[in-house]
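tool_call: predict_structure(chain=1)
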Amino acid sequence: MGGALGMASGIFIVPILTTAFGLNVHLAIAASLVSVIACSCASAAPFLRDGFTNIRVAIVLEVATTIGALSGVALSGLLSNQILYGLFAFILIVSAKQMLAKRQDIAETINSAAMRDVATLLRLHSSYPSQDGGTIQYRVQRVPLGLGFMYGAGLLSALLGIGSGVLKIPAMDAALRLPIKVSSATSNFMIGVTAAASAAAYFVRGDIHPGLAAPIALGSVLGAVLGGKLLMSLSGERTRLFFVVVLVALAFQMTLLALGGEL
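tool_result:
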């Protein structure tokens, strides 16, 4: 699931370890971050090879995401788990609503001001291969807004032990106007760096246990490779709908956890 949607497996691993296996949430987050790093390494290579990943966008956005992740580590002991789950559920619902909205400005006319925007100066515009063998050009928009979203994604990534792809992809979709496959592939490339920034702090704290993290990472890597192949075979609209369904399901689970229940 994580590999197919460009958000690694952390978003699924933490609820599974805490609800199904009764593991302490901090240990679950630490093990999840290790699996996120492994998933990113395993699934990013095929997307890079096939031309879906926008490396320039990833490098620019990763600066904000990493700073957010380090901020999240500093705040990790200040907020209760219920508050974090409730906040996360709210953001998931908003993200799902945003991704369902039809984008009317995707083919808007490029005026002279747009030609001098940040994305143009940084040469972030690119293309990706279409299913019929051609290429599809796209333009990156509203980079400063995207940087703000990425800071928030990194912050929640560290607080909840997720790869932040579940938030990065809606952010890239809403702010930067990237095609969904490009968002997923670029997110796969980025999540390992974000998770590494957080995992280092958890390692220093002694929360990462190799006996727990290693088998989780191995299983996640296999799934990520298979999921990456699935993403490249799906159409953009099916991928978007698939992602929205997962967002809503996760929001429901996080709401239950915020209210003291579980599923």
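agent: The mean pLDDT is 78. Proceeding to next step.
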